[in-house]
Design a protein that fits this description.
This protein has 11 helices and 16 strands. With about 350 residues, the chain is an alpha/beta fold. The protein has 2 domains: about 200 residues, Medium-chain alcohol dehydrogenases, catalytic domain (Quinone Oxidoreductase, Chain A, domain 1), CATH 3.90.180; about 140 residues, 3-Layer(aba) Sandwich (Rossmann fold), CATH 3.40.50.720. The strands form 3 sheets. Strands 3, 5, 6, 7, 8, 15 and 16 form a 7-stranded mixed sheet that branches. Strand 1 and strand 2 form a beta hairpin. Helix 5 runs parallel beside helix 6. The longest helix is centred in the middle third of the chain and has 13 residues. The mean pLDDT is about 95.
């Protein structure tokens, strides 16, 4: 069948709209009519070729839509279901079998390889698909049942796509990976959609000091409205001095989203013992950081987190329940664009005008 897709053909190049041919779903796959899809920083990284994903490719990995067809082995999804597409995992490696699907041993290839794990591609015309197992910058996507989370039809589908990656990552880092206890302190470095999701999750968890750090006054103001108890504008004041003035022994947890080496060094520097830093932001390959090794003594931990240590089929329904209860107003982060406005959406997220752009495909 023919679908409309936005394709990147060269490094830093424009999106080119084309009609392309897509195969019918295999036995374990699902064909989804994409209603809306979020734009994530990872899409921009691939456009700039910070990671060596093959071109030309259909990007997009925060899709939400309606199931059109299912393969013969698909058990829990039927045509007409509303679904959110999340990250892919193989389901049979040691990490998947131990409940750590976000650390699937084949996860990188499944997300960034531009093809299925067996090397095949549902997209024709020498165009790579299967980005994060979905390639949702298109009118339809072929994806595996494991990628999908069935959601209630009572909630606007266009809101839900960003739950599948960026918002899941921020909230899951706090609630699943760090598991911060009530009464703890936490600093979030970077208040884009991931950082703001972490702030809302920290409030849900009962943190008593939630410190938001950024250089954008507008985003810091929003962070305060969403749960930050203190805001620090790193352009106007010394972040380290301010945190240590608030917490002389350091902060219990830091979520580092900016992917700037100096910010990770700072995160370790302001960490209480035995505190934890969660590195969430994805820097270009080969990025190095300098850390005083003595700061890692006395139980301090620095760890990377992928997808917030989340199992989407469990965690996304929880986030939706928080949203319905008024505790997780992630809709305040979203701005809508038509599919044809994809370049404007990327420009607005780059400039900081928009926090979480969502493309309306249908």
């Amino acid at each position: 069948m023919k679908i409309k897709a936005a394709i990147i053909t060269e490094k830093s190049g424009p999106f080119i709209f084309r009609e392309v041919e897509i195969d019918e779903p295999r036995d374990d796959e699902v064909l989804v009519k994409v209603v809306a899809t979020g734009i994530c920083q990872t899409d921009a990284h691939i456009r700039e070729q910070s990671y060596q994903t093959p071109l030309p490719i259909i990007l997009g990995h925060e899709g939400a839509g309606i199931v059109v067809k299912v393969g013969s082995q698909v058990k829990n999804i039927v045509p007409g279901d509303h679904v959110v597409m999340s990250y892919p995992y193989c389901g049979h490696c040691s990490q998947c079998l131990s409940g750590r699907e976000s650390y699937c041993l084949h996860g990188f290839e499944l997300s960034f390889g531009g093809h299925r794990l067996d090397g095949s591609n549902a997209i024709h015309d020498d165009i790579h698909g299967h980005f994060f197992g979905q390639s949702s910058f298109a009118s339809c996507a072929v994806t595996n049942e494991r990628n999908l989370v069935k959601v209630s039809q009572d909630i606007p589908l266009e809101l839900l796509g960003p739950l599948g990656c960026g918002i899941q990552t921020g909230a899951g880092t706090v609630l699943n990976a760090l598991k911060i206890p009530a009464g703890s302190s936490i600093a979030i470095f970077g208040t884009g959609s991931v950082g703001l999701a972490a702030i809302m999750a920290a409030k849900i968890a009962g943190a008593t000091k939630i410190i938001a750090v950024d250089i954008s006054k507008e985003r810091l103001d929003l962070a305060a409205e969403l749960g930050a108890t203190h805001i620090i504008n790193g352009r106007q004041e010394d972040t380290r001095q301010r945190i240590m003035a608030l917490l002389p022994h350091g902060v219990d947890y830091v979520v580092e989203v900016t992917a700037q080496p100096q910010m990770l060094s700072l995160a370790v520097d302001v960490l209480a013992m035995p505190g934890q830093v969660a590195l969430v932001g994805g820097p270009p390959e080969g990025t190095q950081v300098s850390i005083d090794m003595n700061r890692l003594l006395n139980g301090r931990i620095v760890r990377g987190v992928i997808q917030g240590d989340s199992v989407p089929q469990i965690f996304l329904p929880q986030l939706i329940e928080f949203y319905q209860a008024g505790q997780f107003p992630f809709d305040r982060l979203i701005s809508f664009y038509s599919f044809d406005e994809i370049e404007e959406a990327f420009s607005d997220i780059r400039s900081g005008k928009t926090i979480k752009p969502v493309l309306m495909i249908d």
